[in-house]
Amino acid sequence: MTLAIALSSALVALVLAIALMLPSINSPTVPFGVRVPAQYAEDPAIVKQTRIYRWRVLFSGIVAAGVCLVMYSLTGETLLLPLSVLLLVGFWYGCFFLANHEIRTAKAAGGWFQGLHQGIAVDTGLRTDPPRFPWLWLAPALIVTAATVVIGVILYPSMPEVLAVHYGAKGMPDRLAAKTVGTAFSLVFLQIGVTALLVGIAAAVFFGSRPDIDPAHPVASARWHRRYMSLGAKALLGLAAMIDLAMLGSSLLMWSGTVAAWAPLVIVLPILAAVAVTVVVLARNNRERDAGEEDTGLTHREDDKYWRGGLFYINREDHALLVPRRFGLGWTLNFGNPRAAMLLAGVIALLGLVITLRFGG
């Protein structure tokens, strides 16, 4: 029970920290997903909504944690504890949409884009001199997966005839299955699927994303985009390696028949650590650095019509598969691109594989 409370508290703290810091690390020209000219980035309406948003999120985090702790104390069901994370995420996006609406209203009422010279900037060098994909960062994931296969083959003859294929929140096995190659190596298939999916997303970021280059500072913005794109790909490949490491640890528990209260940590800690590192790295580099470039006098186009609620990008005329998020870290899908459906289908297929392999027994 103590372990479940500690893990849930850590997840709530991580989500709450991300929610509170995002307004500071996102571009000042898209506060809460609303495109605004640079000279209005510190408008009193935006400053006010940022302050209100943070108080709302903080209060929501306290309420979400309190509700789930009360439910846990009444029922004793540890599975209710992670519910606080889902509640907090729901409250978080509710706070975001409220701020988004108020800033949109203020922008429309104030005519912030009237009389400004709007433009776009492109990095033609992405075609003639594209950055190199960091294939070397894929090596750890491949090594861990290969090691899992080798260890599994060696241990297979001595494995128990009945394997624990799933552990509950208390570290006790709650699902058993007869030893077969498919059962024993189920997590290897998951490793392969996760690695392929994250490599595919990293490749899509490199070869299918569109940079959001600032027309006021195009050179510095294009340079920053290349660096951020490389960091994003490395972060995804590093996350794949840590997930594979967690699957290796879980496989060892299954193959040895180990039953312990700390069993969930084998999976949770590597993934939680990888997510935390990824968030920190992307957050520290999520904004264009001021390189002293002379302002061109142009501002971004007013393109809010393509962003539903400031979160979902839908533009059938844009051939890019991925675009930079307006609120958050990394990239988001262009839901107007048919290839987005293919990528979502891949994610759904992977989730189906997990459910089939881990719960079908």
Structure description:
Helix content is 60%, strand content 7%. The chain has helices at 2-25, 44-75, 83-110, 125-128, 139-155, 181-184, 186-208, 218-256, 263-284, 338-359, and strands at residues 118-119, 162-167, 173-178, 299-300, 307-308, 312-313, 322-324, 331-333. The strands form 4 sheets. A two-stranded parallel ribbon has the order 1-4. β5 (307-308) and β6 (312-313) form a beta hairpin. α1 runs antiparallel to α2 (44-75) and α7 runs antiparallel to α8. The longest helix has 39 residues, at 218-256. The mean pLDDT is 83.
Sequence-ordered SSE layout with sheet pairings:
Elements: H1 2-25, H2 44-75, H3 83-110, E1 118-119, H4 125-128, H5 139-155, E2 162-167, E3 173-178, H6 181-184, H7 186-208, H8 218-256, H9 263-284, E4 299-300, E5 307-308, E6 312-313, E7 322-324, E8 331-333, H10 338-359
Helix pairs in contact: 1-2, 1-3, 1-9, 2-3, 5-7, 5-8, 7-8, 7-10, 8-9
Which terms summarize this structure?
361 residues; mainly alpha; two-stranded antiparallel sheet; 10 helices; 7% strand
What class do helices, strands and sheet pairing give? mainly alpha
Largest sheet: 2 strands, parallel
Average pLDDT across residues? 83
Nearest-angstrom radius of gyration? 23 Å
How many helices in DSSP terms? 10
> What is the string of SSEs from the N terminus onward?
HHHEHHEEHHHHEEEEEH
- Tell me, briefly, the overall form: globular
- Strands ordered across the widest β-sheet: 1-4
Q: Number of DSSP strands? A: 8
Low-confidence region ranges: none
Helix content: 55-70%
Gap from first CA to last CA: 26 Å
Multimer state: single chain
> How big a fraction of the residues is strand?
5-15%
